[in-house]
Every structure is written in C-alpha cells, then in structure tokens.
Design brief:
397 residues, two-stranded antiparallel sheet, 21 helices
C-alpha cells in the first residue's frame, strides 16, 4: 500500500511537471491509424500515455495475481498449519519443562505432520514418553524422528543414548554410543556419554583408554572425573591382582599423576598387603608420600604391608612418633609391624596406645588376636573382641 501511494505521488509530480513544461506552448500530437485520426495537445497526450502505462502495469500485476492465486492460497494455508504446529510445539515444550508429561506428549504429536520441524516434535515426545515409563512409545518416536530427518542421525542417536542411560539400559546405550563414536569420533558429548556408559558397566579397560581424552577436553567436572579415574584404575589393578608381575605392570601403566594420588596408593598397597606381596618400589613410593604429606589411611595400609625386614620397617615408622605420637592410625600400624617382628610387648603397648587415642574396631581386633594367640590371655582377648564388635556396630549405625 505504501509503495502504491509513493508511485502515485511520483506520477502526479511527473504529470504536473509535464503540464508546466508545455504551459507556454501546449504543442500538437497527431495519431493516425487507417481511417482513424486523433488530434490533441502534447500535454494531454503525455498524460494519457502515462495513465495507459500505469493501467497496463497494474493490469498485468492483476492477471499475474489471478494466475498465482491457487499457489498463494496453498502457501497461506500451509503457513497457517505451520503456525498452529509451532503453537503446539511451544506448548508441548512448556508442558515438558513443567512436568506435565502426558500433556506434553499430546501437544507435541498433535500436529506433527503439519510441522516444518517434525524432528523436534518427535525428540520432545520421546523424552515425554520416557518420563512416563512408556519405553516402547519412546523407541517409536525416535525411529520416526530418524525417518523424518535421516541427516539428523547424530541428534537422534544422542537423545536415544541419553534416554537409555536414564532408564539404566546401559548395554543398549553403549551400543548406540559406540555407533555414534564411529561416525563422529571427535564429538565431545558422545565421548562424555561413552565414558559414563563404560563407568556404569564397570568396563575398566575401555574407561581408562577414553579418560585421557575426557580430561584433555575438560568434558567433566574435576571431582567427577577424578572419581571415574580412581574407579577405573582400581578396576585395572583388581583385574591384574592374580599375579604379582601382571599387577606391577598394570601399576606402571597408570599415569604418574594418579600414582601420586593417596587414594590410589592406598588401594595399591592394600591389594599388595592382601596378597602378601613385597615391592621395594611400592614401599619407597609410600614412604616418600608420607614424608611429603601425612595421610591416616596410607599409614594404616602401610602397617599391613609386609616388608622384607619387619624390624627395619618398624624403625622407619617409629621416626614419625615425635610428630604424630598420638595418632591412632600410626600407633595401630606400629602395633601390627611389631607383631610381625615378634615384639609382643612393644606390639601390646602400641595397640593399647592406639585404642587410648581413639578406639577403632581394627585396633581392638589386632589387640584381641595378640592376647589370644601370642600372650595366651583369653579373657582380655574376649574383652577386646567384644569392644571391637560394639564399635563396628556403632559405626554401621
């Protein structure tokens, strides 16, 4: 409309200009065709010519509009359907966010065939179905999403994996993610979900292989990543714990940063203590770590670690008495080492001091075994067995 008014103003200005131009001399125009003759002034002829040109222009536009009318009507009808579908999509997403999952599914699927973006409808409906426990419907929506847009295989696959993990279908999720990783090996979110699937399935070997990439790209929070790393490398040590050579080789392949982690060192030392293995490298690693930073759990594990010479081990640990003399874990470790050195009196003193500092089930058990097997005092042994059991029950509560 604005364009038409502007055009009309230009026409009026041109007409007025033409009239002013020929006002002094209106001129003469003669048109003849066969037996027909038209005479008029030049000004009037110019005006008529301009009017005819404009009439022809708008006439042609009218004819073109009539010619295109069916297509225009179809387009307008389609636009109205798209608009209704968009309103349904928006309402469905709002319902999904607000927890009205049944309504969300209904709104998302109501006009999906009329939508210009059916993929979004199907993916949203799949989430709504999942949250209602309708897993067959969820899988159907995901299949429909892929059929609606085969080029969006990655988006559909990621959504499918997320929903499978949320429903604890971890093996199915792993299959989905393995396929996605094969077609998009550098996709960060797929890599992160794959690490999560390995962790849930306790596939430690696969997990530790992918974790360096997860750390390098900072795909997980540090606390979560560290927990997964510790679990993964502990699992690797468990798998190799049947043979000391394999066990030591598995430890050597663990990154240096993780070998310095006190949680990992405790686990490593604890497994060696359980098997009764000795390693000078392991012992030096622990002693160095304790010299740098004290750790109660680590000294407790070292107390169960069987060194080649218990007397030498006892002397090494006693050097910390001046600084940590009232630490129950240090005293417990000293008591256990003294027992291996067959120094029964010293072992009794250390264990009683540990219980005096802070009674623990482990210290009570060690002292009870000392009284029962070495000192031949069954009544005292029974007393400490009872005390340890009571402490154990209190800890569980």
């Amino acid at each position: 409309m604005v364009k038409f008014i502007v055009s009309l103003l230009i026409l009026v200005i041109l007409a007025l200009g033409a009239v002013l131009l020929v006002r002094e001399d209106p001129g003469f125009m003669l048109l003849r065709y066969r037996d027909y003759t038209v005479e008029t002034t030049l000004a009037f002829g110019l005006v008529v010519l301009i009017v005819l040109v404009i009439a022809l222009y708008y006439g042609l536009r009218l004819l073109r509009g009539i010619w295109r009318l069916p297509r225009t009507m179809r387009r307008q009808s389609q636009n109205r359907r798209f608009a209704r579908a968009r309103r349904q999509l928006n309402q469905g997403l709002i319902d999904l966010s607000e927890g009205r999952f049944e309504k969300a599914e209904h709104h998302l699927m109501h006009l999906v065939d009329s939508s210009e973006s059916p993929l979004v409808h199907y993916l949203g409906a799949a989430r709504a179905a999942q949250l209602q426990g309708k897993h067959d419907a969820r899988d159907k929506y995901l299949k429909d999403a892929h059929e609606a847009n085969p080029d969006a295989e990655l988006a559909v696959g990621v959504t499918q994996a997320e929903l499978q993990l949320a429903h604890q279908q971890t093996e199915q999720a792993l299959a989905t993610l393995t396929h996605l990783h094969s077609i998009a090996p550098r996709h960060d979110y797929v890599t992160m979900l794959l690490a999560r699937a390995y962790f849930d399935l306790k596939d430690w070997q696969a997990l530790v292989e992918i974790l360096p990439e997860v750390r390098r790209k900072k795909l997980l929070k540090e606390s979560r990543l560290k927990k997964m790393e510790q679990a993964g490398y502990r699992g690797i040590l468990d798998l190799a714990s049947g043979d000391q050579a394999n066990f030591e080789q598995a430890w050597s392949k663990i990154p240096k940063a993780m070998q310095s982690d006190t949680v990992m060192m405790r686990y490593y030392l604890d497994l060696m203590a359980q098997q009764g293995w000795y390693s000078s490298k392991a012992e030096q690693l622990v002693l160095k770590a304790l010299d740098n930073q004290w750790d109660d759990g680590l000294i407790e594990c070292y107390g169960r670690f069987e060194a080649k010479d218990a007397n030498v081990q006892l002397a090494r640990v006693e050097k910390w008495l001046d600084e940590f003399g009232h630490n129950e874990n240090l005293l417990l470790a000293l008591g256990r080492i003294a027992m291996r050195a067959r120094l029964w009196g010293k072992a009794q003193g250390y264990l009683e001091a540990s219980i005096g500092a802070s009674a623990t089930p482990a210290a009570c058990l060690a002292l009870a075994e000392l009284f029962e097997h070495q000192l031949q005092q069954p009544l005292k042994a029974a007393s400490y067995y009872q005390q340890g059991l009571k402490l154990s029950l209190e800890t569980k509560d």
